[in-house]
Each structure stands twice: as structure tokens, then as C-alpha cells.
Amino acid sequence: MFSDLSKAFGQTGDPAFRKVFFISTAISLVIFALLWGLAGYGVSFLDGMIAGWAESDGWITSVLVTVAEAISWIGVAFLSIMLFPSVMLIIIPFFLEDIAKAVEAKFYPELGEGRQPPVGETILGSIQFVGVTLLVNIIALPLYFIPLVNLFAFYLINGYLLGREYFEMVAQRRLVLGEAKLLRKQFSGRVIIAGFFLAFLLTVPILNIAMPIWATAFMLHRFERIRRDAM
Questions:
Q1: Of 212, 163, 215, which Cα lies nearest the Cα of 188?
Q2: Domain count, the chain
Q3: What element of type H or E holds 192?
Q4: Where are the transmembrane segments (predicted)?
Q5: Which of 28, 44, 51, 141 has its CA 20 to 30 Å from the CA of residue 106?
């Protein structure tokens, strides 16, 4: 487990890893720049509504507008920080092949070319994963307000989801989906524990931006180890 993590972290400086990181980060920043632009229009619209509701241009209206703007922009900034890793989770699968090839070239040169999923399948899988993750976490939101329970719930839920998604994602380069699911279920404990490490990385500021890249490399190592054990 830790040796696989070490291998994933140790390859951070690999040109393929750097390329994927910079491209995916740039795409994410463009997406958020567009969202911030839309948020600006939204805040302006809100200012107009408040001014119309107050029906005056006095100091009370100015205070209300200022407070509303501050709350709105703080909310937008908070959501941007929280959702940035999620956007990266959507983008990274499109570069799965680049990361996988770099890992295999260094550690598993004996393996041939892996299966590359169609673009449509990748898009659908990414959206489904992020959608399910957000939905499950929203449902579990009340648990996150209970001390100690919140940590257990967060790591259990997201550890399972991340472990399942990343394992099946890298496994499908070598197996059909049915075989990948069967192998995951057969070694579910090891996959979930690997997912716990990914969930932890997701909660560490700054590091969580690169988490999807490390997660892909780490889970590829876990998959190859599990596949050998299953033989």
C-alpha cells in the first residue's frame, strides 16, 4: 500500500504528470473564470433587486448592497475552492491514458497497449461519478455536523466512492467492465482502504488539486498488484 503511494508521489516530476497537471489546471481555471463572470452578472442583478426593494438611494440601501455583495462574493470564492478538486476529477479521466502510459513505461514495461475507452464513455462516467459523489455527500450532510461522526462518515463514504471509481477506471484499460467490477468486489476491502487514502488527500488544501493525478497512478499500482494476487 505505502510502496504504491510512494511510487505515485515519486513520479510527480514525470513530464507526462506535469503536462496533465498544467493542462487540467488551466482548463479548470478557465471554467471558473467563466463562472466568476456569470457570478458578477448575478451580483449586479442582486444589487438591482435590493435597490428596487429599498426604493431609495440612501445609506441603508448602500449598506444592504455592500453586505449582499460581500456575502455573495465570499460564497462564490468558497464554492470555487471547494469545487475546484471536483472539476479536476471530471477533467483528469480524459488524460488517463497519458498518466497510465507513463506509469506502465516505468514500472510495467512488459505490458502492452491498454484499452482506451471512447470519449463518450469517459464523459458519461466522469459526470456520473461527480454527480453521485455530490448527491451522496449532500444526503450525508447532516452527519457532517456531528463531531467525530463527521470524519468517520466523510472518509467512509468518499473512500468507498473514490476507491470504486478509480479502481474500475484503471482496470477497464485491461479488463471489460464486468470483469473489473468482479475483481473490485473480490478485493473490496483493499480497494476501499486505498480509497480512504484518496479521500484524505482530497481534504488537504493545495494537495487536493493534484489528487486525481496521484490517485490514477496509485490505483494503477494497486490494480496490478491485486490482479497478480487474483491469478
A1: 163
A2: 1
A3: helix 188-202
A4: 20-39, 70-96, 134-157, 191-220
A5: 28
Angle CA 25–31–34, to nearest 5: 140
| Residue 222: domain span | 2-230
Question: Quick one: which of 25, 13, 132 has its CA closest to 85?
Answer: 25
Q: What pLDDT, on a 0 to 100 scale, did the predictor assign at position 127? A: 78
Confidence of residue 202 (pLDDT cuts 50, 70, 90): confident
Long-range CB pairs of 123-128, under 8 A, 24+ apart, other chains included: 125/93, 125/169, 126/89, 126/90, 126/91, 126/93, 126/94, 127/90
DSSP 29-77: HHHHHHHHHHHHHHHHHHHHHHHHHHTS-SHHHHHHHHHHHHHHHHHHH
pLDDT in tens, 209-220: 788 889 999 999
Distance (Å) of CA 99 to CA 20, 87, 149, 165: 8, 18, 35, 16
